[in-house]
Amino acid sequence: MILAASLWVLGYGTLALVKPNRSCPRCYGEKVVRKKRGKGMRPCARCHAHGRCRRWGAVRIHRMFWAVAGDQFKGARKADRADREEWA
Ligand SMILES: [Zn+2]
């Protein structure tokens, strides 16, 4: 059970690292949601009409990953900094 849990955490961590975004759970990537009344559509507020949103914990996992692995790629660090600021 503990093994399964740690495997899940590991798998989810990898998934969140490789694919930090997933399609929005409210609009399913459609970027618009149906109004409650009538047939009108409005931009999805959950994903700010991007259709994608951050996987749960993706930002935290990225920070942890770069805190550990960042030291090993000191040469590539400056290039990563701009990337990382997006996650802040
Ligand atoms: Zn959405």
Give the SSE string. HEEEEHH
* Widest beta sheet: strand line-up: 1-4
Low-confidence stretches: none
**Tally of separate helices:** 3
Number of domains: 1
Radius of gyration: 17 Å
Query: What's the quaternary structure here?
Result: single chain
N-to-C terminal Cα separation, in Å?
A: 34 Å
What is the average per-residue confidence, as pLDDT, rounded to a whole number?
A: 82
Write out the distinct hetero groups bound to the structure.
zinc ion
Structural class: alpha+beta
What characterizes the major β-sheet?
2 strands, antiparallel
Total strands: the figure is: 4
> Which strand-content bin applies to the residues?
5-15%
Helix content bin: 40-55%
Question: What best-fitting shape do the alpha-carbon axes yield?
Answer: flat
Describe this structure in words.
The protein has one domain. The strands form two sheets. A two-stranded antiparallel sheet has the order 1-4. A two-stranded antiparallel sheet has the order 2-3. The chain has helices spanning 2-18, 58-69, 77-87; strands at 21-23, 32-34, 41-43, 52-54. The chain has 88 residues and is α+β, with helices and mostly antiparallel strands. The protein starts with a helix and ends with a helix. The structure holds zinc ion (ZN). Residues 24, 26-27, 44, 46-47 line the site of zinc ion.
